[in-house]
Amino acid sequence: MPAASETAIRAFAAAAQLDYDAIIAAPPHSGTLLQFLLAVSHGGIGLVDPAFIAPAASLGSAADTLSTLRSDPLIGPAVRDTAGWASSPSLTLRSWRLAFDRYISLQAFTAAAIHAEAASASSTLSASTPVSAISSLLDPATGAPSIDRLHHAAHRLLQCRLAGISNSHLLSHYLPTDPRTIQPLSALARARIRASGAPFAGALLAAQRIHPPALLTNADFTFWITHRTGLPHPSVPFLRLTTCHPRCKAITAAAPATGSHPLAYATPHAYHQLRCGATNARILAHNSFIILLASALAPLGFHADVSNHLQSSDTSRRQVDAVLTSIRRPRPLAVDASLSCPLLPSHLDEAAVSAIEVFAARAAEKIAKHASGCELLQRDYLSFILTTLGGVGPPAFVEFLRDSFFHAGLAAVAAGTATASDANHAYHCFQESLQALVARGNSATVRRHTATDAAA
């Protein structure tokens, strides 16, 4: 491991009260060390090796400075002659050409280019800065990337997008999608990394400044990191995790989660306790998500009813968690929430393949339960699925949230009551608050189910 990465992991481990030796000693198939070195958006902690993203940084710098260099009377001719970069006496020009050719040869770059073109062609909203950076490299006549267009990516955060492509390429080795390929990571590691890279799951780690309501205690933060990276629970002894609450029937003193027990693999991490229904901890966590959603949507012009008229059918007693109304929606929107742990046996196989599959499976169950009744009541319906790793889905609900904040922001900007930055900040604050609620709920639930004086 590079010295810079070792230093960064040691410093992070000390700050987060983690066992550095446990991180380094984690077996390769666990993916734990890999996660510390992965970007947050790809399911990691973000302690990326500087050498790994150096080519991206170099090309980002090139894009931002080429216009000036091309106009220089002394070096301008050599800089404008991109065909000669590969054999140029300038090490800088040769390295730019080598890095550019390397990136455009990656399947991850091709996928990013296709996505960029599709986004710019189909979306009425402005494309994100990273996508625009890739689009700017494509020749309008051929659609192919061209180094002659590198200067067109100036000030579009090209480094960020290329670093993401580097991480995607790395993950294509560790998380191959072809089932015939040998998997270097265990199913548990693949599921955990994919779930950690789901929408919203990295909100706290990616935040530049965390707003006060989303701050965590040291204990909650430490457990959240161990849960994200597959390390053992930081404070509850292993032996105590082999059983659960006295009311739990799944793992007991007579049948502890050890040996051949189907939950034995989950014991060091408290996966079972996270979702056990022996106490009301799971319900309390669930309700906190609904309250946060209602309070976050209120400034956006939504009224959320979380106590009355929640039936999803006139003929059954089934209820949703909230009914949202807004002048921007022609019909009320019924929302039903659920919190899942994708690392338990019920979801592990599908979670190892795709984080979206877990959201889709849970959403499908809820759609079957509520959608037809809501339609008869002239209501739209969406499932709000969270995971214990902080991810949110399905994509339709994420899109609803993004569009709600976006259009409310547009209205506020037009009215002169906010800036575009204010609107974007509000959306990120909501993500951070939701992530913090999940982290606190995880800690509280495990405490309730492992307390030595738990009441029967």
Short description:
This protein is mostly helical and 456 residues long. It has helices at 3-15, 20-25, 32-37, 50-70, 76-80, 91-104, 107-122, 129-135, 158-174, 187-196, 203-206, 218-229, 238-241, 271-275, 281-297, 345-353, 355-376, 395-415, 420-450, and strands spanning 303-305, 322-325, 333-340, 380-387, 392-393. The chain folds into two domains: 49-174, no CATH class; 187-456, no CATH class.
Give short descriptive properties of this protein:
456 residues; mainly alpha; 2 domains; 19 helices; 5 strands; 53% helix
Topology, element by element:
Blueprint: H1 3-15, H2 20-25, H3 32-37, H4 50-70, H5 76-80, H6 91-104, H7 107-122, H8 129-135, H9 158-174, H10 187-196, H11 203-206, H12 218-229, H13 238-241, H14 271-275, H15 281-297, E1 303-305, E2 322-325, E3 333-340, H16 345-353, H17 355-376, E4 380-387, E5 392-393, H18 395-415, H19 420-450
Parallel strand pairs: 3-4
Antiparallel strand pairs: 1-2, 2-3, 4-5
Helix pairs in contact: 4-6, 4-9, 7-8, 7-9, 8-9, 10-16, 12-19, 15-19, 16-17, 18-19
What does this structure look like?
The protein is mainly alpha-helical and 456 residues long. It folds into two domains: 49-174, no CATH class; 187-456, no CATH class. Helices cover 53% and strands 5% of the residues. The chain has a five-stranded mixed β-sheet. The protein is globular, with a radius of gyration of 25 Å. The protein starts with a helix and ends in a 6-residue tail after the last helix.
